[in-house]
Amino acid sequence: MEFYNPRYFWLLLLVPIMVGWEIWRDRDRRNSLQFPGFALLNFRRSRVRAWSRFIPLALRSLAVVFLVVALARPQSFSKGEQTTTEGIDIMISLDVSGSMLARDFKPDRIEAAKKIGIQFISGRPSDRMGLVIFAAEAFTMCPLTLDHATLINQFNSVEMGMLEDGTAIGAGLAMAVNRLVHSDAVSRVVILLTDGMNNSGEIAPYTAAEIAKAYGIRVYVVGVGTKGMAPYPVQTPFGVRYQDVEVQIDEPLMREVAQLTGGEYFRATDNKSLEAVYAEIDQLEKSKIHVDEYTHRSEEYWLWALCALLLLAAEVIVRYVGLRVLP
């Protein structure tokens, strides 16, 4: 509740003045003699009547308080928001080839990509998002959805060996683009994460990028892998061993793919830099949210004014009716 004219509360200072004045007048009346003789005086005045003479004063004081509150115009109000979101549709295309098990990320590239990707998804509740994985072929794990809980579950379920090994970057990009072709979102984006060079699939990465450009879809490419050597898992007669292998990412081609579609190319060399890449993409692709605030106010002064009138009526009844019948 708010008060439209709170300055009227200064009038409450009249209440103690009024009470003090009435008490002083009552004492003056009790000390004066208004009868021709003592025989007419009743010195056995009841205790009830002695205290009841203050009831009209209390009622009048309360009436003044309620009247002042009414003058201050109490108002109840409720606030709300009308939000219009121009959403962004985002498909993440994730490389799940065997090289994503390299340990230059902690615990490895694929797990780091999953964890940081889930953080990115959780930070964009207004956008539809989906997931495509690719190795020697591409597969849609989750189409565009606002049900981010389901999308995150699909992210967590991604494992090595789900697809035949290889790196079909063009197929992974083309599959993600295909999921965005019929979207009517203001902005459509593909985030492509890969750690290698295109060596599988029937669609070249540049051809997939041209398709994306034709449909106005931006592609952000993230090269995942340290610069130089990285420990890769190698199957030996004694089990899996890690061997340092040179990291090879076709960065010139990845830059062309990104620039052709109006996107950007990033290189992530560890967990921290991958988080920074996602944070930069998050800033580049912000949803446009328009918020209209509204406030509904309702006048409540009439209730206080009504109470004041009832209290004044009660004072009159008590003073001129109630007190006359008391002993």
From TrEMBL:
Keyword Transmembrane helix attached: yes
Domain VWFA: 89-281
InterPro entries, A to Z: Aerotolerance_reg_N, Double_TM_dom, UPF0353/GerABKA_families, vWA_BatA_type, VWF_A, vWFA_dom_sf
Protein name: Aerotolerance regulator BatA
Membrane-crossing segments per the record: 6-24, 54-72, 301-321
Domain of life: Bacteria
Record keywords, A-Z: Cell membrane, Membrane, Transmembrane, Transmembrane helix
NCBIfam families listed in its UniProt record: two_anch
